[in-house]
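Slide 14.
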Amino acid sequence: MNILASMIFDVHSHIKQPGSFQILQSNGAVLEDSFYSAGIHPWKAANFKSKINDLLKLAEHENCIAIGECGLDRQTGPALGIQQEALEAQLLLSEQLQLPVIIHCVRSFSEIVQVRKNLKPKQPWVFHGFNKSSLLDKLISEDLMISIGSSILNNTSLQECLNQIPNQNLLFETDNSDIEIKAIYQKAAALKELTLQELESIVEQNFKRTFKKWTIGSKEQNCY
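Slide 15: predicted structure.
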């Protein structure tokens, strides 16, 4: 493994990419050579109670550093009530294991906020795949970490609101895109009028503050 001169973090990815530290999404198995997140996606929330024990085993492994992605999706998946039960079960697991949560949210932000108010979680939440500028003020008021993916390359409204995101809330991801994470950083750095190294430093601090378990084991573990 190559040790990077600068540290580029990809907080949520379904695809291994070279040249960055990634949190890969587990497909239901322990990833021995990578740090990963494990969760029950809202699309697969039906019969979630039968999946919780398997999720617990995945989440207890030392390479698991986040719960998720999990959340609510009005567009796809079982009834929202079932999705909410699955989400709440995973949030309780997050608190039990002291792991941050990667949140999937589609047309259900008010419900997500209500769950947050009810449970009063102490662990960080990462709102992944942020691309809807109208939600920004609400995300900031809830002090959620905001993760941006390849939408930043072409979404003008997202580009225009980037500088409104507090630096301490900013993260980046590739999700299921094959676009390199460095291209996302480069675009964001240009929009923020920062050098690439300055932006990397900001995100590195945010990553380490959010995903505290990342420091366990080799720091080169998931650098490809």
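Speaker note: The first strand starts at residue 9 and ends at 13.
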